[in-house]
């Protein structure tokens, strides 16, 4: 029986029971699986093969789910590549694919967020902008663990203007409130939405309360 091919589109066995891949993609997806010679007991695969086999399907499952979620946003092929690059920019924070999509979606209008009201138009984020904002936040003594917490609390920060809002508001906090260094870090972790404030109604409500300094 070992001299016959196993009924599988993925594996074939020669008389020496050597394991081979008939799909180069799958072989590439599981570099930890080596060619194995030996006898199979009761027709079952050795543990080393079974473990690698699991990694193949895990990789394929990630690829399928990743593509499906990007397609659900109605993005073109080019925009989907851009979206994927922005996901990679968030990879340091160990978010799930769903969390990455939710963060980017809320920041750039693809997912509804009360923070923006009706003003946020849908757009595809540019990875350069996402990286610039993340780098600026790191410059405020925020670690990746800090940024993970901040992005979960206030994902819309990635959709704020770096120059007109983030930098300007940090300057206001430093100059007018004397908040800087460790105090600034603690404030941003407690109330990150201050980074996006761009209105000061001074008590005469302008119906944009989520972005108003009166909340500070």
Describe this structure in words.
By secondary structure, this protein is mainly alpha-helical. It has a domain at 77-215: Transcription termination factor 3, mitochondrial. The protein has eight helices and two strands, in the order E-E-H-H-H-H-H-H-H-H. It has helices at 24-29, 47-72, 77-89, 97-107, 127-138, 144-153, 162-177, 181-190, and strands spanning 11-13, 19-21. A two-stranded antiparallel ribbon has the order 1-2. Residues 1-41 and 52-68 have low confidence and may be disordered. Keywords: Transcription, Transcription regulation, Transcription termination, Transit peptide. Belongs to the mTERF family. InterPro entries: MTERF, MTERF_sf. It comes from Davidia involucrata (Dove tree). One of its GO terms (molecular function) is nucleic acid binding.
Give the radius of gyration: 25 Å
- Within CATH, the superfamily of the domain at 77-215 carries the name Transcription termination factor 3, mitochondrial
Which class do the helix and strand fractions yield?
A: mainly alpha
User: What is the molecular shape?
Assistant: globular
Query: What is the name of the CATH topology of the domain at 77-215?
Result: Transcription termination factor 3, mitochondrial
Measured distance between first and last alpha carbons: 75 Å
Q: How would you summarize the topology of this molecule?
A:
Blueprint: E1 11-13, E2 19-21, H1 24-29, H2 47-72, H3 77-89, H4 97-107, H5 127-138, H6 144-153, H7 162-177, H8 181-190
Antiparallel strand pairs: 1-2
Features:
globular; mainly alpha; Transcription termination factor 3, mitochondrial; 216 residues; single chain; 48% helix
């Amino acid at each position: 029986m070992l001299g016959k091919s196993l009924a599988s589109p993925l594996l074939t066995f020669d008389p020496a029971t050597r394991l081979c891949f008939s799909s180069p993609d799958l072989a590439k997806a599981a570099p930890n699986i080596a060619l194995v010679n030996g006898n199979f007991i009761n027709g079952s695969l050795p543990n080393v093969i079974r473990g690698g086999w699991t990694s193949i399907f895990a990789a394929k499952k990630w690829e399928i789910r990743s593509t499906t979620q990007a397609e659900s946003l109605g993005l073109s092929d080019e925009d989907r590549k851009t979206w994927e690059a922005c996901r990679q920019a968030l990879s340091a924070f160990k978010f799930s694919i769903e969390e990455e999509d939710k963060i980017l979606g809320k920041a750039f209008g693809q997912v509804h967020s009360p923070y923006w009201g009706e003003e946020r138009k849908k757009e595809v984020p540019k990875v350069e902008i996402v990286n610039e904002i993340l780098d600026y936040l790191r410059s405020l003594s925020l670690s990746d663990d800090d940024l993970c917490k901040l992005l979960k609390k206030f994902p819309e920060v990635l959709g704020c203007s770096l120059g007109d809002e983030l930098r300007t508001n940090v300057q206001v906090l430093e100059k007018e409130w004397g908040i800087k260094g460790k105090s600034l870090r603690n404030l941003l972790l407690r109330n990150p939405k201050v980074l996006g404030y761009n209105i000061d109604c001074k008590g005469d409500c302008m119906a944009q309360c989520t972005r108003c300094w009166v909340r500070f």
